[in-house]
Fold this protein.
Amino acid sequence: MARWNYISALGHIAFAFYALISLVGGGLAVTSRSLVRAMVGLVISLFGVAGLYLLLLAEFVALMQVLIYVGAVSVLIFFAIMLTRASADGGEAAGPGQRGILRAIPAFLLTILLVIMLGVYGVTGADTPKNVPVAALGAGLLGPYTLPFELISVVLLAAIAGAVLLAFEKRGTH
Amino acid sequence: MNPLVYYQTVAVLLLGLGFYALVSRRTLVGMLIGVELMLNGAGLSIVAAAQLTPADAVLGQLGALLVMGLAAAEATLVLAIVLVVSKRFGNADADSPRELRG
């Protein structure tokens, strides 16, 4: 790109903004000593990733991200925090400890390795994302990708049944 | 550097953050938060790869939706497991259930 392009610069600024939101939220989610704050960090990170989806012109995926992750999964995590009857911090007040730091070394090494590999072997993509209408997604779900669509509903049903079975309290055992 | 590499870098960093939470958290709920971060990175990677390359964009977006559905199912099951563990051991620490004996 020879000439300075304002739209492209705006795109870069928006990308940096959303990437910063998702990474800062993720950092809060993994380092916070309180589980409720960690969950809030996760929600911030999910919103940042939704913004990245919007930048990729995947507006339906961004909407589903907010609906499913922020609306449902984070509420589930909050229920899990509340129902464990632990202390207010949820049992994370002591921090990861020496063993936790030791176990985290592979995570750092893997991340650094993958980032280096991306820099060296990263493939060249297009500069602008494709614009796919939502109708094409619906046609895909009802056409060539019907089987995964039905299978995910079976998986969700099995998950619901399994959760009810696990959490079911038998009468007279307590 | 091109946009695809930027998006994949963010996805890899989310994966690393989630992996760090998975191995360093003491409680099952903290580990669940790490898994959700990792799945988010996976979804972002899939959508970026589908939208910025000549690949089938519909397949990529539907794949990300599939990942979201699996994440919701997994969170439901982990919530039930956390309930069972906290009922039996009094806390939800990952180190509490040490024995496989019923």
Observations:
- Chain A has two domains: 1-95, 132-174.
